[in-house]
Amino acid sequence: MQITINQAANYVDKEVKIGGWLSNKRSSGKIAFLQLRDGTGFMQGVVVKADVGEDIFQIAKSTSQETSLYVTGVIHEDTRSPFGYEMAVTGIEVISEAVDYPITPKEHGTEFLMDHRHLWLRSNRQHAIMKIRNEIIRATYEFFNQEGFLKIDPPILTGSAPEGTTELFHTKYFEEDAFLSQSGQLYMEAAAMAFGKVFSFGPTFRAEKSKTRRHLIEFWMIEPEMAFYKLEDSLKVQENYVAFLVAAVLKNCRLELDRLGRDVSHLEKMVAPFPRITYTEAIELLKKLGFDDIEWGDDFGAPHETAIADNFEKPVFITHYPKAIKPFYMPEDPNNSEVVLCADLIAPEGYGEIIGGSERIHELAILEARMKEFDLDLEAYSWYLDLARYGSVPHSGFGLGLERTVAWISGTEHVRETIPFPRLLNRLYP
């Protein structure tokens, strides 16, 4: 019977056949250990010369790294293995031999690995990170479906900038100017006015010339919008969602976390509610910590976010940022016109902002006035202003960056490892 590696537990003491690749091997005079992978997992195959004969043993010894093959053998429990099972090999059939595979078990530089990203994905570490990414995606759909959200897909090509910035990728849309989407938010607001609670999940693009370990040019965002939700209502959804993601990874990806050496004791603390501090309190905290260069009204950089987060065991919400440094669609705090009703969620351990969100302005006159302050073309945003013209309601939303979240939960230092084919400032290959 042909099975996959992740089904091994169901076939203990039975002879099975597995199609896969040889990721690594070692051998002595009379025994060979084959590290097998098939996409679902990694498992060791043990080839004993006395049991298989000279022909099969020579195939095991001579087969090169990443050669594809069918391996037949009996599954046994193996308490020494993190996977828990191994195969006593009885037969090997080579499908396609790999010659001079470039990524060997030795150390390679980052640029070399990035040039060979299409092959690097096969490695044990990258497999674990992608499995965790997939679990976060799966859990995202589960969470929002059970909370009564409808998935809506906003366009990738747009005629305007949701954030009102110039950091956009320009293209021609026949005779018109168009941009790659930096956020689906405005379209999700329209969807919320139709369906109440909605979320999107798709690619976004930022033409930021940044080389930090937190930035990608193309990344994926989860963007919910909720009608009749105030800021505090939204914060509760956010913390419950993030806690749900962490719990799902802890439950379903423990082997992958172990493979990455992730200290799960940090993740086990990620239960709602999360702490909240205001922007003003955050400035005061930074001053106490010796950051004399930052003043009220400045935006936070990576060192500031890390220093703030280090004071909390869980992700921390920073709320009520200055109006001057936030986008046009965020409403003023009724109690302080200098700040807006918004929050960023900062992950622990130096991973920075993983969520940005706010209430949205829903009064037409206020929205038009703010857009004029930002020197935006009201004609281009006419459809968005229609939302305020025709029965708008108080509403809130947020965006979670998938890759930063994967990096934090998996304990991966750089986001370039958290997406299959990263797009960086100087990298469009492969």
From TrEMBL:
Domain Aminoacyl-transfer RNA synthetases class-II family profile stretches: 130-430
EC number annotated for this UniProt entry: 6.1.1.22
Gene3D superfamilies linked to this entry: Bira Bifunctional Protein, Domain 2, Nucleic acid-binding proteins
GO term, biological process aspect, one: asparaginyl-tRNA aminoacylation
Gene Ontology MF annotations: asparagine-tRNA ligase activity; ATP binding; catalytic activity, acting on a protein; nucleic acid binding; transferase activity
Cellular component terms (Gene Ontology): cytoplasm
CDD domains: AsnRS_cyto_like_N, AsxRS_core
InterPro entries: Aa-tRNA-synt_II (IPR004364), aa-tRNA-synth_II (IPR006195), aa-tRNA-synth_II/BPL/LPL (IPR045864), Asn-tRNA-ligase (IPR004522), Asp/Asn-tRNA-synth_IIb (IPR002312), NA-bd_OB-fold (IPR012340), NA-bd_OB_tRNA (IPR004365)
Reactions catalysed: tRNA(Asn) + L-asparagine + ATP = L-asparaginyl-tRNA(Asn) + AMP + diphosphate + H(+)
Leading EC class: ligase
Pfam families, per the entry: tRNA-synt_2, tRNA_anti-codon
Keywords: Aminoacyl-tRNA synthetase, ATP-binding, Cytoplasm, Ligase, Nucleotide-binding, Protein biosynthesis
Localization per record: Cytoplasm
Keyword Cytoplasm: yes
Record-stated family: Belongs to the class-II aminoacyl-tRNA synthetase family.
Subunit annotation: Homodimer.
Protein name (database record): Asparagine--tRNA ligase
Organism expressing this protein natively: Listeria booriae
Phylogenetic placement of the source organism: Bacteria, Bacillati, Bacillota, Bacilli, Bacillales
Gene encoding the protein: asnC
